[in-house]
Amino acid sequence: KEAGNFFMILPPGTQTDFGSSETAQTIITKFNQPSAEEHFKIIKKGHRYCVNKAEKDGVTIEEDYSDEAIETYYKMLMETYSASDYNPLPKEFYKKIIQGLHAKNQIKLLFAKYQGKTIGCAAFPHSGKTIYYWTGASIKGELAKLYPNNVIQWHIIKWAYENGFKKYDMLGAGIEGIRNFKLGWGGEIADYTRVYSSSSLKLAASAYSKIGSGLKSKIRAGIR
Predict the structure, then answer these.
(1) d(CA 49, CA 52)
(2) Residues 47, 187: contact at Cβ < 8 Å?
(3) DSSP single-letter state for residue 108
(4) Contact, 138 vs 144, CB < 8 A?
(5) pLDDT for the residue numbered 215
(6) CA distance to 54, 119, 168, per residue, from 145 (Å)
(7) Cβ neighbours of residue 196 under 8 Å, at least 6 residues apart?
(8) Does residue 48 contact residue 181 with C-beta atoms inside 8 Å?
(9) What pLDDT, on a 0 to 100 scale, did the predictor assign at position 107?
(10) 7 has which bridge partners?
(11) Alpha-carbon distance 111 to 121, whole Å?
(12) What is the β-pairing status of strands 107-114 and 60-63?
């Protein structure tokens, strides 16, 4: 009640009468196959091709939670989001979240590497038996053909099976291209509840999502 304007995302099936709510969608992938290898068979054919090609070309996955790694991760986020209307949160926020959750063994920060160069990255918080796809980014240009995002997704799915996780919430299905990519890993669309602290904040957020990128940039500049 004292936090001012904010919104919360509640897991699928959770209901509340607090604030002003709306229904949105995410992708839930269940880890209900006998093994990761069997799960691979239900992944979209194109995704399987990309994974196999990337691994054949020598793309590898590494974990790193150092300050230098988070700096690389943040730079890639900035580059990836520069072409969109979304601004990453402050670097210190990501650093505190990633290193704080890492200390509790509640996150995986993965980097796709090719010949020593980072070509993709993603962060996966986890709680209980559920993994979440928080943020990810990849390099542009020729090296994008090495499909780092696909290798990272397959790596986290294999790790989930090896460690007894039950489901994977990919956090969002609002953009068609991203939705199709996420659905390709064997998941289904599920509803979740987004709760706003007030009806006026909900109205403002809805209006913001419908206006053009030029006006959004002006609004952001004014907020700063």
Answers:
(1) 5
(2) no
(3) E
(4) yes
(5) 44
(6) 8, 10, 26
(7) 6, 7, 19, 20, 21, 22, 202, 205
(8) no
(9) 97
(10) 196
(11) 4
(12) antiparallel
CB 25 within 8 A of CB 183: no
At residue 31, what is the residue type?
F
- Write out the chain's pLDDT in tens, 224 residues: 566 677 777 766 777 777 777 778 889 999 999 999 999 999 999 999 999 999 999 999 999 999 999 999 999 999 888 776 667 788 999 999 999 999 999 999 999 999 999 999 999 999 999 999 999 999 888 888 999 999 999 999 999 999 999 999 998 787 788 889 999 999 999 888 888 877 777 777 666 555 544 444 443 444 33
How far apart (Å, rounded) are the C-alpha atoms in residues 118 and 139?
Answer: 8
Tokens 């091709």 correspond to 49
The two structure tokens encoding residue 60: 């590898």
The two three-digit tokens of residue 204, written as one number = 């403002």
Enter the tokens of residue 19.
């604030």
d(CA 201, CA 217): 19
Q: Quick one: how many helices (H) and strands (E) in the chain?
A: 8, 9
